[in-house]
Amino acid sequence: MSERIAELEAENALLKQRVIGLSKAEKVLRETEARYALAMQGANEGLWDWDPVSKELYLSARLLRTIGMGKDTFKTTSNEWLSWVHEEDREHYQQVLCHHLKGETEYFRCEYRVQNSSGGYVWVLAHGMALRNDQNIAYRMVGSIGDITEQKEYQDKLLHQATYDHLTGLPNRALALDRLSVAISRSRRNKTSVGLLFVDLDNFKKINDTLGHEVGDLHLKEISNRLGYCFREEDTIARLGGDEFLVILPDLDSPKQVEEVCERILATAMQPVTINGYEFSTSASIGVTIYPDDGYEPSGLLRNADAAMYQAKAQGKDTFCFFTPEMDQETVRKFTMESYLRQALSKDQLSLHYQSIVSASSGDVVGAEALLRWHCPEYGQVPPDQFIPLAEESGLIVTIGDWVLETACLQAAEWMATACVPFKIAVNVSYPQFRDGHIVSTVEKVLKKSGLPAQCLELELTERLLMEDERGCAEALKKLSAMGVQLSIDDFGTGFSALNYLQRFPVNTLKIDRSFVAELDCSKESPALISAIIQMAHALGIEVVGEGVETRQQVNFLTLQTCDYLQGYHFARPVPADQFQLQFSESCYLGAYI
Ligand SMILES: Nc1nc2c(ncn2[C@@H]2O[C@@H]3COP(=O)(O)O[C@H]4[C@@H](O)[C@H](n5cnc6c(=O)[nH]c(N)nc65)O[C@@H]4COP(=O)(O)O[C@H]3[C@H]2O)c(=O)[nH]1
């Protein structure tokens, strides 16, 4: 009996100790919670307290105010709370919660939208942490919620600015490529195709040039709006820049669907647009490529579509063209190169090299030919023979040519001022620069800006340009000549046999093509031909430059034939401006080349 009493007393003491322990723990918990609640009040956050077993959820008054429920503290269930979570965020919310309950994350952190009493949604950021028993099972979870709607809206705005085109409101290139990647992944799973269309408006530049950029912009906006009606909801139309658009058609079953879309785009682009009382219409050229038939990578597909678009242009515009593997690789390269060339000037990839022209009698450097160089990051150093024809075809030569003229004249004026000797700078010009007398006004401006005397500028023309007089170059050449600008004929002898243009145009110099000079040693005709050219030119009061002079024998022959000037690797290769300056000053101070 006494043993039993002692046992009971011991148990009683133990129980008392546990009660004391528990009430101490409860006190600590209450204090902790009070501190937490205080901290949260200060942090302007609402509190929640959840029992994962019974699903009871306690929401603090501040939390309810945060999400706009307009109620005081109240109890609910986690199921009801879930019904307030935006349906697009529900799965994510449940996943994050589940990971935390399983102990896979240290803290619970989730951004989601929750509905308020007026039916709208607020973005909230919820933090929380589960309390766990000895078996690591969560028996309670507490946390806070803060309203991040404003922050989210700001983020969305920034994201929108970074991914949408500001003029048309369409997705931009970055977003388009992202969507293309998503479409490709989905098609891979669904075993379907993706159509990629590169759309370029034909003759849009004309609208910009004749009616101004404002009208051009309005036109683009209108066309973008209209194009929007040509597609399904899941399709994407993006603006790549300028008048170029990209269309992504995901989940296609047959290429026939693409053809229908192309027809719709062509018809839409044709519809007349009226802006500021002007009515005009454009057309479009479309290049089409298909995933997976033509490629797997977004960047490769984009290149295909671009090349196919150029093919459509080459076929007369206002049409669409499917990419084919047989499509000439050179054509692809050419068209891709043109798109890079478009940016070459603004990206500072162009420069001028200068090649000495020496007097055949004294050997002094009397001038230089400015030769354009393009360093393209994608293709490396591109030879002028490759990119100049491209620039001419695309009309880019006009802007580039203006830059060449200005740079060369400013440079020549500087050298002349430093060396105090006469100097002539020769600049190549192409036919498109003559359109509408453009070259005359450019030369006037450039001479004024640089202070270079007109006589010190020589424009190198091709025979073709003079032969095609009907294009209206004659007038411009006469004006240039009247200003004092020198005119020379480049690559003389290679083009046309009719020489009557030499009398009709105010030509000052002939440059004998380097192929004749190269053949001097091995062909019987070449010496006779060169000799005849020099005599004929002199009879007409025209000076002669021998081009491509590489050997001492060539120098001797040309000098004997009274050729006036010599140019070629024998004297100097084309070099950057600073190196040419050294050659020039050496020639001025140390003596002649010959
Ligand atoms: N084998 C050999 N070649 C020599 C020798 N001496 C000079 N050359 C090369 O012959 C070309 C002379 O220029 P071009 O006949 O006007 O022929 C030029 C010109 O028609 C065109 N070009 C260059 N710059 C411009 C430019 O600013 N505007 C225009 N429209 N065309 C340009 O590109 C063409 C090629 O220019 P480049 O490649 O720089 O080639 C240059 C030059 O490097 C030599 O001794 N041997």
Automatic annotation (TrEMBL):
UniProt key word Transport: no
EC code(s) of this entry: 3.1.4.52
Domain EAL: 334-588
Keywords recorded for this protein, A-Z: c-di-GMP
Xref: SUPFAM superfamilies: EAL domain-like, Nucleotide cyclase, PYP-like sensor domain (PAS domain)
Pfam families in alphabetical order: EAL, GGDEF, PAS_3
The protein's name in its UniProt record: cyclic-guanylate-specific phosphodiesterase
Annotated organism of origin: Neptuniibacter caesariensis
Lineage of source species: Bacteria, Pseudomonadati, Pseudomonadota, Gammaproteobacteria, Oceanospirillales
